[in-house]
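re the bet — no i am not wrong, look at it urself. input seq straight from the record:
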Amino acid sequence: MTASEPITDEPTADDGESRLIIAECFGVEVPTFQGEGPSCGHPALFIRLSRCNLTCAKCETKYTWDWSRFDPRKESAQRSVADLVAWAASSPVELVVITGGEPLIQQARLVPLVRGLTAAGKRIEFETNGTIAPAPELLADGVRFNVSPKLASFGVKETKSIVPAALESFVSSGQAAFKFVASTVADLDRIAELTDTYRLAPVWVMPEGTTPEVITATTRVLADAVAAQHWHFTTRLHVLAFADARGR
Protein backbone atom coordinates (compact mmCIF):
# COMPACT_ATOMS: atom_id res chain seq x y z
CA MET A 1 0.00 0.00 0.00
CA THR A 2 1.10 3.55 -0.60
CA ALA A 3 2.17 5.88 2.16
CA SER A 4 -0.46 7.53 4.31
CA GLU A 5 -1.76 10.98 3.39
CA PRO A 6 -2.99 13.77 5.68
CA ILE A 7 -6.34 12.93 7.26
CA THR A 8 -9.48 15.02 7.08
CA ASP A 9 -13.07 13.86 7.42
CA GLU A 10 -13.48 14.50 3.69
CA PRO A 11 -11.03 12.46 1.59
CA THR A 12 -9.10 14.37 -1.04
CA ALA A 13 -8.85 13.31 -4.66
CA ASP A 14 -6.47 15.80 -6.20
CA ASP A 15 -5.15 13.20 -8.64
CA GLY A 16 -8.65 12.20 -9.77
CA GLU A 17 -8.69 8.98 -7.74
CA SER A 18 -11.43 8.14 -5.26
CA ARG A 19 -10.08 7.81 -1.73
CA LEU A 20 -11.42 6.36 1.48
CA ILE A 21 -10.53 6.97 5.12
CA ILE A 22 -9.17 3.62 6.30
CA ALA A 23 -8.37 2.43 9.81
CA GLU A 24 -6.63 -0.79 8.77
CA CYS A 25 -6.46 -3.53 6.17
CA PHE A 26 -5.48 -7.10 7.02
CA GLY A 27 -5.67 -10.68 5.84
CA VAL A 28 -3.15 -10.62 2.98
CA GLU A 29 0.18 -10.64 4.78
CA VAL A 30 -1.14 -12.68 7.75
CA PRO A 31 -4.16 -14.81 6.73
CA THR A 32 -7.32 -14.77 8.81
CA PHE A 33 -11.01 -15.70 8.79
CA GLN A 34 -14.37 -14.00 8.90
CA GLY A 35 -15.04 -14.41 12.61
CA GLU A 36 -18.81 -13.84 12.78
CA GLY A 37 -22.12 -14.32 11.07
CA PRO A 38 -23.14 -16.27 7.97
CA SER A 39 -19.57 -16.65 6.67
CA CYS A 40 -17.95 -17.47 10.02
CA GLY A 41 -14.83 -19.53 9.36
CA HIS A 42 -14.39 -18.49 5.74
CA PRO A 43 -10.94 -17.15 4.79
CA ALA A 44 -11.31 -13.38 4.47
CA LEU A 45 -9.59 -10.08 3.81
CA PHE A 46 -10.64 -7.05 5.84
CA ILE A 47 -10.87 -3.40 4.88
CA ARG A 48 -11.81 -1.47 8.02
CA LEU A 49 -13.00 2.06 7.39
CA SER A 50 -12.58 4.81 9.94
CA ARG A 51 -15.36 7.00 11.39
CA CYS A 52 -18.76 6.07 12.84
CA ASN A 53 -22.12 7.76 13.33
CA LEU A 54 -22.76 6.00 16.67
CA THR A 55 -20.87 6.15 19.98
CA CYS A 56 -21.63 2.78 21.56
CA ALA A 57 -20.19 2.35 25.05
CA LYS A 58 -19.37 -1.32 24.36
CA CYS A 59 -17.81 -0.72 20.94
CA GLU A 60 -14.63 -2.74 20.41
CA THR A 61 -13.23 -0.55 17.62
CA LYS A 62 -13.26 2.85 19.29
CA TYR A 63 -10.02 3.64 17.50
CA THR A 64 -12.21 4.32 14.45
CA TRP A 65 -14.14 7.19 16.05
CA ASP A 66 -13.36 8.04 19.69
CA TRP A 67 -10.96 10.95 19.34
CA SER A 68 -11.05 11.61 23.10
CA ARG A 69 -8.97 8.42 23.45
CA PHE A 70 -7.30 8.00 20.06
CA ASP A 71 -5.50 10.26 17.60
CA PRO A 72 -7.18 10.13 14.16
CA ARG A 73 -3.86 10.99 12.49
CA LYS A 74 -2.33 7.84 13.95
CA GLU A 75 -5.39 5.64 13.59
CA SER A 76 -6.47 6.41 10.02
CA ALA A 77 -5.08 7.07 6.56
CA GLN A 78 -6.42 7.95 3.15
CA ARG A 79 -6.14 5.14 0.60
CA SER A 80 -7.09 5.20 -3.05
CA VAL A 81 -9.62 2.77 -4.45
CA ALA A 82 -7.04 1.56 -6.96
CA ASP A 83 -4.60 0.82 -4.14
CA LEU A 84 -7.20 -1.12 -2.16
CA VAL A 85 -8.27 -3.18 -5.16
CA ALA A 86 -4.65 -4.03 -5.97
CA TRP A 87 -4.05 -5.05 -2.35
CA ALA A 88 -7.06 -7.38 -2.31
CA ALA A 89 -6.31 -8.77 -5.77
CA SER A 90 -2.84 -9.82 -4.59
CA SER A 91 -4.49 -12.54 -2.47
CA PRO A 92 -6.34 -15.65 -3.71
CA VAL A 93 -8.88 -15.23 -0.90
CA GLU A 94 -12.31 -14.60 -2.39
CA LEU A 95 -14.16 -12.90 0.48
CA VAL A 96 -13.52 -9.22 1.29
CA VAL A 97 -15.18 -7.87 4.44
CA ILE A 98 -15.69 -4.09 4.46
CA THR A 99 -16.26 -3.00 8.03
CA GLY A 100 -15.73 -0.08 10.40
CA GLY A 101 -16.57 2.09 12.20
CA GLU A 102 -19.56 2.50 9.96
CA PRO A 103 -18.53 1.95 6.34
CA LEU A 104 -21.69 3.33 4.74
CA ILE A 105 -20.79 6.83 5.91
CA GLN A 106 -18.39 6.77 2.93
CA GLN A 107 -20.62 4.81 0.59
CA ALA A 108 -20.39 7.20 -2.38
CA ARG A 109 -16.68 6.34 -2.57
CA LEU A 110 -17.36 2.67 -1.89
CA VAL A 111 -19.18 2.26 -5.20
CA PRO A 112 -15.97 2.25 -7.31
CA LEU A 113 -14.30 0.01 -4.71
CA VAL A 114 -17.10 -2.54 -4.96
CA ARG A 115 -16.95 -2.43 -8.74
CA GLY A 116 -13.20 -2.95 -8.70
CA LEU A 117 -13.32 -5.80 -6.20
CA THR A 118 -16.10 -7.66 -7.98
CA ALA A 119 -14.30 -7.22 -11.30
CA ALA A 120 -11.29 -8.86 -9.61
CA GLY A 121 -13.45 -11.88 -8.73
CA LYS A 122 -14.07 -11.02 -5.09
CA ARG A 123 -17.31 -11.31 -3.18
CA ILE A 124 -18.04 -8.68 -0.56
CA GLU A 125 -19.65 -8.53 2.85
CA PHE A 126 -20.40 -5.20 4.47
CA GLU A 127 -20.53 -5.07 8.26
CA THR A 128 -22.91 -2.19 9.04
CA ASN A 129 -24.89 -0.95 12.03
CA GLY A 130 -27.98 -0.63 9.85
CA THR A 131 -28.62 3.09 10.36
CA ILE A 132 -27.79 4.16 6.79
CA ALA A 133 -29.65 2.74 3.79
CA PRO A 134 -27.36 1.33 1.10
CA ALA A 135 -27.06 3.18 -2.19
CA PRO A 136 -28.64 1.32 -5.11
CA GLU A 137 -25.20 1.09 -6.75
CA LEU A 138 -23.99 -1.07 -3.84
CA LEU A 139 -26.75 -3.63 -4.33
CA ALA A 140 -24.68 -5.51 -6.88
CA ASP A 141 -24.22 -9.20 -7.52
CA GLY A 142 -21.69 -10.66 -5.11
CA VAL A 143 -22.43 -8.13 -2.35
CA ARG A 144 -24.05 -8.98 0.99
CA PHE A 145 -24.76 -6.92 4.11
CA ASN A 146 -24.35 -8.16 7.68
CA VAL A 147 -26.61 -5.67 9.45
CA SER A 148 -26.03 -5.34 13.20
CA PRO A 149 -28.62 -3.08 14.84
CA LYS A 150 -27.34 -2.03 18.24
CA LEU A 151 -29.54 -2.56 21.30
CA ALA A 152 -29.73 -0.13 24.21
CA SER A 153 -27.80 -2.68 26.29
CA PHE A 154 -24.82 -2.09 23.96
CA GLY A 155 -24.56 1.41 25.36
CA VAL A 156 -26.38 3.51 22.77
CA LYS A 157 -29.80 5.14 22.57
CA GLU A 158 -32.07 3.19 20.27
CA THR A 159 -33.51 6.46 19.01
CA LYS A 160 -30.16 6.74 17.21
CA SER A 161 -29.30 3.10 16.54
CA ILE A 162 -32.66 1.82 15.27
CA VAL A 163 -33.60 3.57 12.02
CA PRO A 164 -36.79 2.04 10.58
CA ALA A 165 -36.39 3.35 7.03
CA ALA A 166 -32.84 2.01 6.81
CA LEU A 167 -33.84 -1.41 8.17
CA GLU A 168 -36.70 -1.56 5.70
CA SER A 169 -34.28 -0.79 2.88
CA PHE A 170 -32.01 -3.67 3.91
CA VAL A 171 -34.96 -6.05 4.18
CA SER A 172 -36.26 -5.10 0.72
CA SER A 173 -32.79 -5.52 -0.81
CA GLY A 174 -32.86 -9.27 -0.28
CA GLN A 175 -29.09 -9.07 0.31
CA ALA A 176 -28.96 -8.70 4.09
CA ALA A 177 -28.64 -10.87 7.17
CA PHE A 178 -29.33 -9.37 10.60
CA LYS A 179 -26.78 -10.03 13.32
CA PHE A 180 -27.43 -8.99 16.91
CA VAL A 181 -24.96 -8.89 19.81
CA ALA A 182 -26.55 -10.23 22.99
CA SER A 183 -25.46 -10.97 26.52
CA THR A 184 -28.72 -11.74 28.33
CA VAL A 185 -32.06 -13.42 27.66
CA ALA A 186 -33.62 -9.95 28.02
CA ASP A 187 -31.60 -8.92 24.97
CA LEU A 188 -33.19 -11.79 23.06
CA ASP A 189 -36.64 -10.51 24.00
CA ARG A 190 -35.76 -7.14 22.49
CA ILE A 191 -34.36 -8.81 19.38
CA ALA A 192 -37.64 -10.68 18.97
CA GLU A 193 -39.55 -7.39 19.17
CA LEU A 194 -37.36 -5.83 16.49
CA THR A 195 -37.46 -8.81 14.18
CA ASP A 196 -41.26 -8.96 14.42
CA THR A 197 -41.71 -5.21 13.93
CA TYR A 198 -39.39 -4.89 10.92
CA ARG A 199 -39.67 -8.46 9.57
CA LEU A 200 -35.93 -8.99 9.84
CA ALA A 201 -34.63 -12.28 8.44
CA PRO A 202 -32.45 -14.24 8.53
CA VAL A 203 -31.43 -13.48 12.11
CA TRP A 204 -28.09 -14.35 13.70
CA VAL A 205 -27.31 -13.92 17.40
CA MET A 206 -23.74 -13.48 18.60
CA PRO A 207 -22.67 -13.68 22.26
CA GLU A 208 -21.04 -10.54 23.58
CA GLY A 209 -17.50 -10.99 24.88
CA THR A 210 -13.84 -10.35 24.16
CA THR A 211 -12.38 -13.44 25.83
CA PRO A 212 -13.04 -17.14 25.17
CA GLU A 213 -14.23 -17.58 28.75
CA VAL A 214 -16.86 -14.85 28.50
CA ILE A 215 -18.00 -15.99 25.05
CA THR A 216 -18.39 -19.56 26.28
CA ALA A 217 -20.34 -18.48 29.36
CA THR A 218 -22.61 -16.16 27.37
CA THR A 219 -23.18 -18.84 24.73
CA ARG A 220 -24.50 -21.14 27.44
CA VAL A 221 -26.77 -18.41 28.81
CA LEU A 222 -28.29 -17.75 25.39
CA ALA A 223 -28.22 -21.05 23.52
CA ASP A 224 -31.54 -22.60 24.57
CA ALA A 225 -33.49 -19.39 24.00
CA VAL A 226 -31.86 -18.77 20.61
CA ALA A 227 -32.64 -22.34 19.55
CA ALA A 228 -36.26 -21.90 20.67
CA GLN A 229 -36.57 -18.91 18.34
CA HIS A 230 -35.13 -20.91 15.43
CA TRP A 231 -32.52 -18.20 14.88
CA HIS A 232 -28.94 -18.81 13.75
CA PHE A 233 -26.18 -18.72 16.38
CA THR A 234 -22.67 -17.50 15.63
CA THR A 235 -19.59 -17.46 17.80
CA ARG A 236 -16.73 -14.95 17.58
CA LEU A 237 -14.04 -17.06 15.95
CA HIS A 238 -11.36 -14.36 15.94
CA VAL A 239 -11.62 -14.12 19.72
CA LEU A 240 -11.42 -17.88 20.19
CA ALA A 241 -8.60 -18.36 17.68
CA PHE A 242 -6.52 -15.20 18.03
CA ALA A 243 -7.43 -13.81 21.50
CA ASP A 244 -9.13 -10.78 19.86
CA ALA A 245 -5.78 -9.52 18.56
CA ARG A 246 -6.08 -6.45 16.39
CA GLY A 247 -5.52 -7.19 12.71
CA ARG A 248 -6.63 -10.83 13.00
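see?? The chain is about 30% helix and 20% strand. told u. also Residues 103 and 167 are 16 Å apart (CA to CA). so pay up
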